[in-house]
Amino acid sequence: MAKAKRLVVLVSGSGTNLQALLDAVADAGTEGYGAEIVAVGADREGIEGLARAERAGLPTFVCKVKDYDTREEWDAALAGATAAYEPDLVVSAGFMKIVGKEFLARFGGRFVNTHPALLPSFPGAHGVRDALAYGARVTGCTVHFVDDGVDTGPIIAQGVVEVRDEDDESALHERIKEVERRLLVDVVGRLARNGYRIEGRKVVIQ
Ligand SMILES: Nc1nc2c(c(=O)[nH]1)N[C@@H](CN(C=O)c1ccc(C(=O)N[C@@H](CCC(=O)O)C(=O)O)cc1)CN2
Ligand SMILES: NCC(=O)N[C@@H]1O[C@H](COP(=O)([O-])[O-])[C@@H](O)[C@H]1O
C-alpha cells in the first residue's frame, strides 16, 4: 500500500472543515484515509481552528501579515513554515489570505482550497453574501487547486445548495458548510489515495 500523504491545513476561523478532516483520519485510520494531518497553520491567533489542532495534539504555526514589512516577506515566511512539515498536499480550509509567488512556487499544483460558492461565480472573501445579494437560487461550494488568481484555479469538485427565501448569510453558509465538509473530506482522500494529474483546467483523479 502507498505511503499516507502528509497534509498541512491552513485556517483562519472556526475550523469545522479542519475538524471534518481530523475526524475522517481518526475514523478511517491514516492508511485507510490515505493521508495524515501533520500540522495546522493560521494567519491569526486565538481562533477555534487552532484550538481544534491543539486538542488533536498537532503542531501549529501562525504567520500574521502585520509581523512582516511586506506582503512578499509574509508570503515567504508562510511558505517556509509550511515547508518545514514537508507536506505532499496543503489544504486551505477557510484560510482568508491570498497567497503569493513564493508560496505558489513551492506548493502550486498541490495547494487545495475550498470556497463557499459555485465558482467561477462569486469568488473572493464574501462568496455567500455575494450569491445572496445577486439573487442566485442555487449556490454551493467548490474545491479547487489554487493558482495566482483569486479562486480561479482548476476545479476538482462542486456541491450544490438551494437558496431559500428566508435565508440570511449565516443560515445559508451553515447549509453550505454541511455539504462542503463532506465534499472536502471526499476530495482530499481521493487525491491522496489515488493520485491525480492537472491537464489545463481539468483535474483527473486516477
Ligand atoms: N493565490 C491565491 N490564494 C488563495 C486563494 C486563491 O484562489 N488564490 N484562495 C483563498 C481562499 N479564498 C477563498 O476561497 C479567499 C480568501 C481571502 C480573500 C481575501 O480577499 N483576503 C484578503 C484579506 C481578508 C481578511 O483577512 O479577512 C487578503 O488576502 O488581503 C479572498 C479569497 C486562499 N488563498
Ligand atoms: N473564500 C474563502 C472562504 O470564504 N472560505 C470559507 O470559510 C469557511 C470556513 O469554515 P470553517 O472555519 O468552519 O472550516 C468555509 O465555508 C470556507 O469555504
Automatic annotation (TrEMBL):
CDD domains reported for this sequence: FMT_core_GART (cd08645)
Listed pathway(s): Purine metabolism; IMP biosynthesis via de novo pathway; N(2)-formyl-N(1)-(5-phospho-D-ribosyl)glycinamide from N(1)-(5-phospho-D-ribosyl)glycinamide (10-formyl THF route): step 1/1
Sequence positions that bind N(1)-(5-phospho-beta-D-ribosyl)glycinamide: 15-17
Listed InterPro entries: Formyl_transf_N (IPR002376), Formyl_transf_N_sf (IPR036477), GART (IPR004607), GART_AS (IPR001555)
Class in the EC hierarchy, top level: transferase
Family the UniProt entry places it in: Belongs to the GART family.
Binding site for (6R)-10-formyltetrahydrofolate: 71, 96-99, 113
Residue intervals of the Formyl transferase N-terminal domain: 5-188
Protein name (Swiss-Prot/TrEMBL): Phosphoribosylglycinamide formyltransferase
Catalyzed reactions: N(1)-(5-phospho-beta-D-ribosyl)glycinamide + (6R)-10-formyltetrahydrofolate = N(2)-formyl-N(1)-(5-phospho-beta-D-ribosyl)glycinamide + (6S)-5,6,7,8-tetrahydrofolate + H(+)
Keywords: Purine biosynthesis, Transferase
Feature type site, description Raises pKa of active site His: 151
Organism: Streptomyces siamensis
EC number in record: 2.1.2.2
